[in-house]
């Protein structure tokens, strides 16, 4: 067992040198242990034993590119082990799932045309990347099903693909349906398929959505979460400021990780941004506690870097966060430390703090249009979805312009 732990430590240190996050290393260690047991107490590895392990333990056939995210992570971990044993170092850096997956040739030209059309219409690069991931999943599935071109797709292929794609994540599945609907409509309008297959994409489960009550926390819960952050630590200073920006101002995570120094208007005591999601301008008051937390991080916690984003990773080379990073791990670390009981029906991502703020404002009798403006919503309907947790208060909520938000919430 000592030898196993020594080997795991050495391999983990190699990943740390490449800048892997600790959470990723923990996952890799799990799969290395699996391989160690599979090989009956040995890390000896070659192409044959690697392929044998992947097939027998994780049902991953060699050269199969239509794989799940879990299978991709396992394959990457065993590939790390193979490289370390073969070359004495890890030579291929971990890349996000599907990022570098090759296009299947019969579908490449149409797929890239479609993605270019999305860019030409002004869609953000991250949105285009999300569509690309969906199309790569779809085309890999079609290739496996021996469908030679988009013109040969039938409704039964769509059904099989959707069944194969269900993973329990309602949000991801809803996005998948949206991507397919847009893409199949494009195929029909551009005569790549004689049938409008978008009509065969089922609607997302609106009834299920209506049953879902947004997760909110009490004021005491939020205080407990903030209180357990070690603000004497540089990472703690960063995390405290980021969480406070959601809890006090309701900023989206995408706007927080994109926040630049020029967005903080110290002279006017406000934050002024163009929202990442909507491109709409948003100006919010800079409360003293939020401003002080940002100043403390910049002066006493932020690594020395030329990056123009205020909040950066604390692992060299101190890069900005990806816009796809929802800070889920950071928030849940402190949520668990706080000892707050998390029931199965609760969503516990950073976004839940936006729902919490919305309901807090509602209970303080802030008018609905003002709440909508604070949250950066384009419509009141979206805001009302946030407020389903407090339906009785919403029933009496006035829909006219009300008192000054900054003045009222700063006293709360």
Amino- and carboxy-terminal Cα gap: 56 Å
The chain-level mean pLDDT equals 80
Q: What is the chain-wise order of helices and strands?
A: HHHHHHHHHHHHEEEHHHHHHH
Q: Which secondary-structure class do the elements indicate?
A: mainly alpha
Task: Give the structure's gist in a few sentences.
With 412 residues, the chain is mostly helical. The longest helix is centred in the first third of the chain and has 20 residues, at 125-144. 55% of the residues lie in helices and 3% in strands.
Q: How would you describe the overall organization of this protein?
A:
With 412 residues, this protein is an all-alpha fold. It is built from 19 helices and 3 strands. Helix 5 (105-120) runs antiparallel to helix 6. It has a 3-stranded antiparallel beta sheet, with no helix packed on it. The model is unreliable at 93-97, 206-211 and 391-412 (pLDDT under 50).
Keywords:
single chain; 3 strands; 3% strand; 3-stranded antiparallel β-sheet; mainly alpha; globular; disordered C terminus
SSE arrangement:
Blueprint: H1 2-17, H2 22-38, H3 47-58, H4 69-87, H5 105-120, H6 125-144, H7 155-165, H8 170-189, H9 206-211, H10 219-227, H11 234-249, H12 253-257, E1 264-265, E2 270-274, E3 281-285, H13 288-300, H14 328-338, H15 352-363, H16 368-375, H17 380-386, H18 391-395, H19 405-409
Antiparallel strand pairs: 1-2, 2-3
